[in-house]
Protein 1
Amino acid sequence: GDSVITVQLTEEDKIEDDVVFYLVFTGSTVQHCTSTRKINPGSLETISPGHDCCETVKVALCASREGHPILVVAEETFQFVQDEAYDAAQFLATCAGNQQALNFTRFLDRSRPPAADVDFLDEKVALAFRHLKLPAEWNVLGADQSLTENIPRETLMHFAVRLGLLRLTWFLLQQPGGRGALSIHNNEGATPVSLALERGYQKLHQLLTEEEAKEPDSWSTLSHTVHSGDYSIKHHRGLDVYMLTAEA
């Protein structure tokens, strides 16, 4: 989800001023409808929706003109694939509170990927997390809420801060248990806040300590989503396109 899609039109479908084009993605349980932006007479641009599962969906390019019936211009298939970022997000979501799994993730810290790789990882994993269907009872600190803040343990927040993942940290802060994780010490006595300070992650430390800290720059800052029951509408300010998602 959230990639830019370009649609190339044939000569006979070249854009007239009063025609509006949009794409309809039909999956097994969810349908998305996206508006498009005209780049030039032969090209359209829009944003791919974040889907609820990995599958091949049908995509219809539709044209609308006032006073005329909606026309299906073309149909194609579009595949949502399970990539490493999706795998990573799923793994992290399921191991919240699992000390064995969280301690295992610390081996990543020893290899210290380059800054560019960390930024790419951060963007992709945070985006995948946003599109995961997390259970209603999901919590950053795991399922066992009887644990007190005084018990030293590793948390998902420690993991995100240790690698310097700004966007993932922001996402976790917005989830149940996110703020509570900031004061939890691990077995070395470090909290996520002290880890950020110790490693010189100034932006990350600011994000964790400032009340009015803003979301890190990413696609998500360019969009605004409104949910209502089985429907959601997302506005991408960057391209000025809208996306309606409905659960079937």
Protein 2
Amino acid sequence: AFLDLSGPSEIKAVWKGSTTLPCAYVPVEDLVQQTLTWSVVHDQSSGTIFRRDGSGDHVLLSEYRDRVSVPKDATGNVSLLILNLEVSDRGTYTCHVTWKASNNSLIAKEITTKVEVVKVAATKPIIRAGELGLTVPAGASTSLTCEASGSPPISYRWFRSTLEGKALFLSTGAKLAWDRLQPSDSGTYFCEAANR
């Protein structure tokens, strides 16, 4: 029986976002997973983050508590999900799995993934119109939604162009909504997306 772990050798993850470090194998009959450990080597320190064995799942490094998990239901998928990434999370992560064969011998495999944590500026936002589109009958309700990507949190601000070509500030938040549109609501609207 041939077992191998697969995953990428390098990942760029977004600061304050979440990332999955893929580690997977194709299950083989007569081979039962015994242990899974995820460990990390940082610039200054190293240690075991996560261990899964017969007694359950254990997060061993306090700075990862409540931030890491491994799927439970998918045999062969032992990827590590990390939430709310900090720059200090960068380092080399190792996925180490052992299996027991029917003759009680143990097989062990590991792969390593280098993780960089990058700060990403907010992209130029796009505006999505509500179901009725951008030409809407008076009296109807509608909304515009502003969307951008980048390191969270992203904040949004809505403006409307005035006749003098100035920007009139309307509100914050990703969504701009109207309950009952009036003809006077016609105009040019724009949104701004920003992060740290």
